[in-house]
Amino acid sequence: MREGLLLGADSADQTAKRVMVAESPDPFRAASGKVGQKILALLSTGPLYPAEIARALKVHHQTVYYHMGRLEKAGLVAQVGRKSVRGGEANLFELSTDGYAVEFAVKGERLPASQQVPGPKGLAKFFGEFIREGDFDGWIVVGSPVQHGTSGTQARDGHYAVQLGFALGQFVRVPRKFPVKLDVDVKAESLRGANLIVVGGPRNNVVAEELNPRLPVRFKEGGFWSSIVDGHGRSYNSEFDCLLAKVENPWLKGSTCIVAAGLAGAGTKAAIVGLCNQADQLFGDYRGGAYASVLRGVDRDGDGKVDSVEVLSRA
After folding, report:
1. CA-CA distance, 288 to 291, in Å (whole number)?
2. Are 186 and 149 in contact (CB under 8 A)?
3. Dist. CA 202–CA 206, nearest whole Å
4. How do beta strands 256-262 and 196-199 pair?
5. Which residues are CB-contacts of 19 (< 8 A; sequence separation ≥ 6)?
6. Which of 30, 74, 100, 230 could form a cystine bridge with 313, CB 3.0-4.6 A?
7. What is d(CA 252, CA 194) in angstroms, rounded to the nearest whole number?
8. Is CATH 3.30.379.10 correct for 121-314?
């Protein structure tokens, strides 16, 4: 036998139970009878003495001692204390495990590395190239907070990547090295030849500026990047407008770039909200390859903050 974790996919609080696991029911024969099952049910409420169990079950003490001996040998209960009672010793017992299970020789289902319940399928599908056997493969690129680039701007939307990190954390382990890089460092350290998630538009992020001409939906260069133009030539210029795009990395064939960016900080926030909260809606029919859509952030609950997105255009 060995110890395993029993995960409840429908559990609201996403808890796990430690259980004894065997390849056949034989080690758990002690729990197959009605008395053994009743004893385990009683002990699930807390430690008890055999005399207390006998009174609760209305059976003879020797019957309880017999079954307790079998359950203890099976590893399902354990002594946790004792006390003197009328010149004798009474042992206190508790459950030694949260349950027991029989395991069949099947392949099973791979779960996200860092949480018990699978995250949105759409999100895992869209970021598939970035998830390698539970590890994050790539860089998250945010704009530098100091003046930089041809427009000399200071990025103020990089903190939205934190929410994206939480969302991706459903599928990957905590990286050993920081996966977030400033746009200027990506250029300086020649890190563009990798999978890249670029947060923020060309006004604030120089990597987004270099990628922009290669996107199916792109920012219009004139007017200080004042609008987004889709594949049909339609323009979108609300501060809450944003684009989500996925293309092959132009600096390294076989790797991927994803851009989540708005015309302003509110738009970039909307792009992240869409990725994190509405992935199944946005990517439910995604089958791989290039992707592009124009979204608009909306305030559904009336608190003055973007909490949802609506699709304006899809390439």
Report:
1. 8
2. no
3. 6
4. parallel
5. 3, 4, 5, 6, 97, 98, 99, 100, 101
6. 230
7. 7
8. yes
What tens digit of pLDDT does each residue of 233-250 get? 999 999 999 999 999 999
pLDDT confidence band for 269 (50 / 70 / 90): very high
- What residue spans define the domains of the chain? 2-102, 121-314
Instruction: Kindly state the average pLDDT of the residues 291-299.
Output: 95
CA–CA gap between residue 160 and residue 150 (Å, rounded): 23
How does strand 180-182 pair with strand 235-236? unpaired
Distance (Å, whole) CA 296 – CA 226:
15
Provide CATH code, domain 2-102: 1.10.10.10
Residue reference for tokens 């089958």: 287
Going from the C-alpha of 156 to that of each of 161, 205, 303, the distances in angstroms are 11, 10, 22
Q: pLDDT value at position 116?
A: 43
- Residue at token pair 């004042």: 226
265 has pLDDT over 70: yes
Report residue 185 as tokens. 């460092």
Q: How far apart are CA 249 and CA 251, in angstroms?
A: 5
Tokens of 2: 């060995």
Across the chain, mean pLDDT equals 89
| Closest C-alpha to 1, from 113, 58, 76, 64 | 76
> By the 8 A CB rule, do 137 and 176 touch?
no
